[in-house]
Amino acid sequence: MSTEVLPEIQAEPVHPKSWPPHPPKKMIMSPAMAVFGGLLAFFTVVFMVVVLPTTTFEPDPSENWRPLTDLEMQGRNVFLANGCIYCHSGFVRPQDVYASQYYVYSRAAEPGDYMGDGETPNLFGTIRTGPDLSNAGGFHPDNWHYAHYYNPRYTTPLSIMPQFNFLSEEDARALIAFTQSRGGHIADLRVQHQNNMTALEMASGNVATDRENGDRTDGYPAASAIKNLMLIDRGYWFADNPLPVTTENLLRGRQVFQERCIACHGSQGDGNGPGAFYLNPPPAAFNAADDQQHGSDTSPGAYYWRILRGLPGSAMENFGTRLTVDDIWKVTLFLKTIPNGGLTAEIPTPDMYVQWRGYPGLFEWANCFAPDKDFYMSQDSVDSLADVTNYAQLGPDVSVTPSALSGSALSANTPYGIGDVPGIVAEGTINPVYATVLWEIQNNARPCGTAGYEDVTLHDVLADAQTQADGFALQGTDQIQFIPSDMLDMSQMPPQWLAQVWDQPNPLIASDAGNN
User: Fold this and answer.
1) Rounded to the nearest 10 degrees, what angle do helices 184-204 and 223-231 cross at?
2) Would you say residue 247 has pLDDT above 50?
3) How much is the CA Rg of the chain, to the nearest whole Å?
4) Which is nearest to 450 in space by CA: 217, 233, 254?
5) Which structural domain, as residue segments, surrounds residue 497?
6) CA angle 211, 368, 437 (to 5 degrees)
7) Under a CB-based contact definition with an 8 Å cutoff, are residues 180 and 143 in contact?
8) In this predicted model, which residue has the larger pLDDT, 29 or 445?
9) What distance in Å separates the CA atoms of residue 306 and residue 319, rounded to the nearest whole number?
10) CB-CB contact of 164 with 502 (8 Å)
11) Are 106 and 418 in contact (CB under 8 A)?
């Protein structure tokens, strides 16, 4: 085998040695050119986004627009000065987690909503931690905002919002006015409805029959309970809880209650949470066994509806998009254990559960006060109701169904874009809730309950409202003018109420110190 090595063949040179070398490479874009180009791009964006729209975009005001008042402009300045803009937006943001917190979407924004001083340029959030406030006006009464701004944990135990109790009373009033203005004319309708319902709630507590107005004192609902029932869809008035009373369901209900409810209703369920100091009317208490078993407006269905949709005029807000249907029913289950130690026991158990049974007079009243007696219930049904102690255990022979219990006029003619606000009707039309409570105030009686008014139906109440003064019981009109001064203490109403609670010692903190 040959081991001879072949000679190496020389490679051709890349270029002749006589050629000069390549010149050194240079940057095509110098640092100066990069700086100039960056500035040009930046100011082009600023011109297109800020300058051009504000100088050329001049839409006509929308039907919902109104100018801000001096107090609201002052509140806008407080909003900006305290950095609220970083977390809360003035623009509609349907993609955000809290966009649907009001259960039903409120009105979609239009270009003409953002006109005039305080609206152009609009406020927008950069961090976007808090909810969109573009339509926040009127979904809570003023006194809810008193508690919320003083310490957000007083209304929302899980809130990460900082306290604003360092604000002066004047600045707090202005900031709340600005918050309540968000949403324009539609927000004004909601705010007016909240104020009306607050006044009617307080006045209804002064309606006396035989100098008493306690629930069931004469075998029929109290005036304030009738007001609550008027706000609740009739299909829920006497509904039972669809979930079984199990330890697992009660534990979950207690967890939700402690996470969402104790700031107002208290760690003992007695309505004395730290937020209650700022709220008028006060939060509901759940620690009375008799009320849990026989209350006119304490059935599982009534509780469920109030948690789902809230109760205007009070600080009770809706949780329809923040809690699942199952969780709301589980909370409702748990509320019925509070009188027997559900909050203090290591584990709530089914034997603590208080079964709601109502009472015969409630069912008789419901039949009498129906919008249409013939449609609502037959007399045989009423007799059957009076013979039983637990509505949920009625047999199939009783022809009372949720569909038959519905038919309330309360949800008719709901204004477009108003959002989820129970008991509100179209502007300028008679509101059945207003009409009923005002009728009670004027007659110092309750329809279908007080002697001499045994046969007064909702139709009669509405017919009477049509004969009253202009604005009486009309949606969008201040109803305080129709409430006698001896039935309503105006010092208990916003804004006078603010002076009594803002920057004042809170006596309820000691009993619920864990909620600060």
Assistant:
1) 150
2) yes
3) 32
4) 217
5) 186-516
6) 50
7) no
8) 445
9) 9
10) no
11) yes
**Which residues in 77-104 are b (16+ Cβ under 10 Å) and which e?**
ebbeeeebbebbbbebbeebeebbbbbe
Give the span between the Cα atoms of 491 and 497, in whole angstroms: 6
Same domain, 181 and 118: yes
Gap between the Cα atoms of 298 and 358, Å rounded: 9
Q: Sorting pLDDT into bands at 50, 70 and 90, what band is 1? A: low
Residue with tokens 């209900």: 253
Which residues make beta-bridge pairs with 212?
Answer: 209
| Helices 247-260 and 325-335: angle between axes, nearest 10 degrees | 100
Tell me if 312 sits within 8 A of 422, measured CB to CB: yes
Q: In the predicted model, what is the mean pLDDT of the chain?
A: 84
Q: What is the tally of structural domains in the chain?
A: 2
160: domain CATH number is: 1.10.760.10
CA distances from 226 to 39, 118, 229, 401, 424 (A): 67, 42, 5, 20, 16
**pTM to 2 decimals?**
0.83
Q: What is the DSSP letter of 484?
A: -
Closest-CA residue to 495 (of 172, 80, 257) = 172
Q: What is the C-alpha to C-alpha distance for residues 226 and 296, in angstroms, rounded to an integer?
A: 8
Are residues 81 and 221 both part of a single domain?
no
- Give the 3-state secondary structure of residue 209: strand
What ranges in 357-487 are assigned the alpha helix state H? 360-368, 373-376, 379-387, 402-405, 432-443, 458-465
